[in-house]
Amino acid sequence: MYAVIKTGGKQQKVKVGDVIEVEKIVHDGETVTFHPILVVDDDGKTHVGGEAAKAVVTAKPLGEKKGDKIKIFKYRPKSGYAKRGGHRQILTMLEIEDVKFGAAPKRAAKPKAEPKAEPKAEAKAEEAPAETVEAADPAE
Question: 95-130 burial, b for 16+ CB within 10 Å, e for fewer?
Answer without folding.
Answer: ebeebebeeeeeeeeeeeeeeeeeeeeeeeeeeeee
